[in-house]
Design a protein that fits this description.
283 residues, little secondary structure
Amino acid sequence: MRASELLKRYAAGERDFSKVSLWGVNLSKASLRGIDLRDADLRGANLRGIVLREACMDGAKLAEADLTGANLWGVDFRGADLQCANLTEANLTGADLRQACLVQAILNKANLNSVNLSEADLNSSHLWGANLCAAKLINIDLRSANLRGAYLCQAILSGDLREANLSGANLSWTILAGANLQDAILSEAELSSANLIGVNLTSAKLRGADLRGADLSDANLTGVNLNEANLSMAKLNGTILNGATLSGTDLRGTNLTGTNLTEANLLGANLRGVVMPDNTIIG
C-alpha cells in the first residue's frame, strides 16, 4: 500500500490497517493517532516525527525503520520487530514493548518513562541518555547495551546486563535484585538506595559509583573495582567482595560482619564507624 492511499483512507475514518505491506513507505510527520497496524510490514519505513499515539502495533515489522522524534505515547508494540530501528529522541512514554525485539536499536535520548520492556531483547542497543524512570524491565536482555548517562531511577530491572555500559547512569532507588551485571561498567553511576540483593557484579567496574544506602545483601562483587566509590551505610550482609579493590572507598557506617573480604584491597578506605568481620568497630 502507498502512503497516499493509507492517509486518504485514514482521513475517511478507517483505522484497521493490520497486516498491510508498507515496506519502505514515507510517512514522515504524519498524524495517525489510534491506528491499527498490527502485524503490518513497515521495514525500512521513514516515520520521522510521526504521531502514532495510542496506536496498535503489536507484531509489526519495523526493522531498520526511522522513528526519530516520533510520538509513540502509549503505543502497543508487544512482540514487534524493531531491530536496528532508529528511535532517537522518540517519545515512548507508557508504551508496551513486552517481548519486542530491539537488538541494536538506537534509542539515544528517547523518553521511555513508565514503559514495559519485560522480556524484550535489547542486546547491543543504544540508550545513551535515555529516560527509563519507573520502567518495567523484567527478564530483559541488555547484554552489551550502551546506557551511558541513562535515567533508570525507580525502575524495576532484572535479567541479563552482562558487559552493559551504565557509566554515569542514574539508578537511584532502582530494583535490580537478582540481575546479572557481570563485567558491566558502572563507573560514576548513581546507585544510592538501590536494591541490589543477590546481584551478580563479578568483575564489574564501579569506580566512583554512589552506593550510599544501597542494599547489596548476598550480592557477588568478586574482583570488582570500587575505588573511590561511596558505600556509606550500604547493607553488605552476605556480600562477597573477594579480591575486590576498595582503595579510597567510603565505607562509613557499614557492617562487615557477614561480608567476605578475602584478598580485598582496602588501602586508604574510610572505615570510620565500620563493624569489621571480627566485630571490632573502627573509631
